[in-house]
Here is the input.
Amino acid sequence: MKRLLAVKTIEKIGESVKLAGWVHQRRNHGQIIFIDLRDKSGLMQLVFTPQNKALYRTADSLRPEWVIKVEGKVNQRPKGMENPKLPTGQIEIEVANLEVLNQAKTPPFEITQASADGKEVNEELRLKYRYLDLRRQKMIDNLVWRHKVVKIIRDFMDRENFTEIETPILTKSTPEGARDFLVPSRIHPGQFYALPQAPQQLKQLLMVAGLERYFQIARCFRDEDLRGDRQPEFTQLDIEMSFVKQKNILNLVEKLFIKIVKELVELDRSLSKKLTFKPFLKLDYQEAIKKYGTDKPDLRKNKKDPDELAFVWILNWPLFEWNSDEKRYDSCHHIFTAPQEKDLPLLDKEPLKVHSWQHDLVLNGHEIGGGSIRIHQREIQEKIFKLVGLTEEETEEKFGHLLRAFEYGAPPHGGIALGLDRLLMILFNEKSIRQVIAFPKSGDGRDLTMEAPSSVNPEQLKELGIKISS
Ligand code: AMO
Here is the structure.
């Protein structure tokens, strides 16, 4: 007999089935023992009566989180015993065979429905025992639904003629405004790779190469202070297109998000997500600041309604902001963002008045995406490098490869990156992106499950030519 998932037994009333999973809870009701068996799909009530003595004794010995396998008949529950809160609440299994596959120590925290969101458990403990924390139904669901959203994205991008291309993780610093994580090279002592803060320059080089429509579910690394919606390691849906105007990028993303919401609601009818603005609202940066005092306004009609999705585009950004500490211009998005053509004459005289082709996407007050039309001419790119304070030597050392590529027929291009973790956090009504990532870092940047970062052995350091000074 093939093993079934708990939810699948609903279709098997009167038949014999085989299930496997964990002991979620045990209740003794007089003579009868009820065990809630938990698997990936949910809970199933098992019933043991004293008639079969050996079976009853084994059932009585079961403890939470033991792993068991059972065979038995699916019965309708007696009148008044149904649990309308569970998908399997109308049925139970009259067990004929029970096998203990493994025992378990008492977990450091309870994995019961009552603590389904885990909020009452210390977060460090949850992360240390993440494999137990992930046993909560809500956490399993978050990971399963994350997979479904990524599949919707991949299918959509494929239909729109995009090619998914992997770019290197061991690469050179590509600045997105945070510190780099560095990886020392053994073969080239004293030299370092940087983990990508985003695949920005590589996707632009793919446009020069003629790929035209690129995307990637890309892992990004930024050494910055953590918050509820920030992780040092996170995932972007990264997109780049050639021969496009800004409106083509906005339309594509809008179509994708409408598709994601529609398919999610179709797949899970208990979900009722509503778009506040369709088409998405478009605001000029200045207008957003003036009206709402922020470039990330939360424009839900009813902020208490978790089902509302208020997507807002923020457009017409200034190209630069003045950095008074460092006495230089900083790019509002990144240094590869194109100035609007009408403002090009202002670039030399009044750079702060130049508008750019930046587009940010805000959802319920969170920045979930950012991108731009890019510079594709060497002269303009060089001018921007100079305005942000790079010398000619620094420009050559850091970005020589990109400037050279622009001399070999770079097409006009642009794109966007969408923060997948942030999007999922909002879609799944979570307060932190840690809830949608299988193994996230703690507030102080540690992987508590694997205990990283950790010391390495002196031999490894010697091979790398590295001495720890403190
Ligand atoms: P940007 O830096 O705006 O743009 O990043 C794009 C989106 O990624 C998400 N994000 C993060 N999510 C979780 N943790 C973080 N630490 C974190 N940092 C950013 C946000 C953000 O909107 N290369 C450009 C994109 C482009 O120009 O095409 C880029 O990375 O949702």
